[in-house]
Amino acid sequence: MPLLRNSRPNILVIGDLMIDHYLWGRAERISPEAPVQVVDVANETTVLGGAGNVINNLTALGASVSVASAIGDDANGKELTLMLKSIGVKTEGLVTQPGRKTSKKSRVIAANQQILRYDKESKDAITEASESKILAAVEKDLFLYDIIILSDYGKGVLTPALAQGVITRARAGGKKVLVDPKGRNYTKYRGAHLLTPNKKEAIEATGIEIKDDESLKAALLWLKSECGLDRSMITLSEDGIAIFDEKLKRFPTVAQEVYDVTGAGDTVIASIAFGLSSGLSIDDAARFANLAAGVVVGKIGSATVTLDEIEEYEAMLHQSSSDAHIKSFEEIDRIVNRCRAGGKRIVFTNGCFDILHVGHVKYLQVAKSFGDILIVGLNSDASVRALKGPSRPVNSEDDRAYILAALESVDYVVKFGDDTPYELIKMLCPDVLVKGGDYEGKAVVGTEFAGELKLVDFVEGKSTTKTIARIQEGTTC
To answer: Has keyword Transport (predicted)?
Structure first.
């Protein structure tokens, strides 16, 4: 993740742009005019859709994005252009084609369920004049781009001539082209670096029924050979991603509760492109894309994902390294704000945790049961010496933090240098502050900033002091 956080690749997206329009409301009665639900609309939202959702995902990840496409000379086209510019997208490659209708898809949502969609759009192939203008814009700035994405929604922008023109120029300039394909005929994508069809799309394109690893490999080989790809890929929904370069590789995913898969394919290709252009290997880019997709399917509508959300999701799955769970004051403040905005209950406890033992582990497990996110404040080495004497700690603060962060019950560890975690608690304002049972009847630092205080009894006979004493005496438990 540090590699990606320091990256801002330049990525060009070419494809079918559209506006996703949402009408949100409640459906609590049937119309007297017809046997249909009546939706009381509470609010409306508009977001970029189609290739625009790829763009949204890229900007959310931190990429610098340019776009090339054809839109209509209509109100929707003007609105779409303003939406792109408002998020910092470079629109020099955007071509206005007279008479073309800019795509706008309106969805009616009630009780988190989509009950109706209606579209306004043109589906005809763009004109040769539009193709030429887009290719000229791509060629002019090709040297600026780290990678190019073709996002095909079958609305007429990515004609065979345009797709091949972009791929030919990109290969000549040493640039990779990633394609989210559409339809059954993939010949127009020949020469791309890779395609990202889902399982259904791959079956339709290859004519191979994918039902096991052998048929999956056959489909991947067909795509690689017939489309002249550097490597082939098929996304497998809840089964992750499959790639073939020199051999078949599968990257499983762990999905959270799925609310809406709208735009998940856009998130995958955006994440793959961001990862590759930031220096990740294809394997690591696939793992990164799996995590990103795991986040967006838990949201309603065409959604995006940030690096922070991916990091939190990875931490929740406990698939990240311990280092990823150790945070600074500034980092944990941002994380808590996001988690609280998402309705998560924050739990905080603190201690020296010098020589980790079963008492510590059980204490932390109970602490985690009081909420959703457990943050452990860890005394620094200097702080431990001030509290316990010059012979402590036995283990350094970095070692203690790493071991704590490896525990399944612990979400984040924050080191602090004061004698008490007063400032840390004041900043976090946890919903639950947890301390040991020996604090019964005593004042607990930071309680004024916490929602409630919970006391947890320690395991009888288990403590760091007693462990050290047994070691010095050469006795066993």
So the answer is: no
Give 193-222 pLDDT, tens digit per residue. 999 999 999 999 999 999 999 999 999 999
**Residue 324 scores a pLDDT above 70:** yes
Q: What is the residue type of 91?
A: T
Weakest mean pLDDT among 45-54, 232-241, 458-467: 458-467
Indicate the burial class of 76 (C-beta count within 10 angstroms; 0-12, 13-18, 19 or more). buried
Q: Catalytic one among 16, 260, 266, 354? A: 266
Q: Strands 90-97 and 17-30, how do they pair? A: unpaired
Q: pLDDT at position 458, please?
A: 76
pTM score of the predicted model: 0.73
Which of 288, 283, 292 minimizes the C-alpha distance to 246?
283
Instruction: Give the type of residue at 73.
Output: D
Q: How far apart are CA 167 and CA 190, in angstroms?
A: 8
Is 283 considered catalytic here?
Answer: no
Amino acid 140 reads: K
Cross-strand bridge partners of residue 432: 347, 452
The answer to the question of whether 426 is labelled as a binding residue is: no
Q: Could you tell me if 459 and 434 are in contact, meaning their C-beta atoms sit under 8 angstroms apart?
A: no
Share of the chain above pLDDT 70, in %: 91
Higher pLDDT, 264 or 468: 264
φ, ψ for residue 83 (rounded to 5)?
-60, -40
Domains observed in the chain:
2-317 (3.40.1190.20), 327-473 (3.40.50.620)
How many Å apart are CA 457 and CA 445, to the nearest integer? 18
199 is in an annotated binding site: yes
Could you tell me if residue 318 is left (phi over 0), alpha (psi between -120 and 50 degrees) or otherwise beta? left
Q: Which tens digits make up the pLDDT trace of 39-63?
A: 999 999 999 999 999 999 999 999 9
- 324-331: list long-range contacts, CB under 8 Å, 24+ apart: 324/1, 324/405, 325/405, 325/410, 325/411, 325/412, 325/413, 326/401, 326/402, 326/405, 326/412, 326/413, 326/414, 326/415, 327/412, 327/413, 327/414, 328/414, 329/414, 329/416, 329/424, 329/427
Tokens of 398: 């970095």
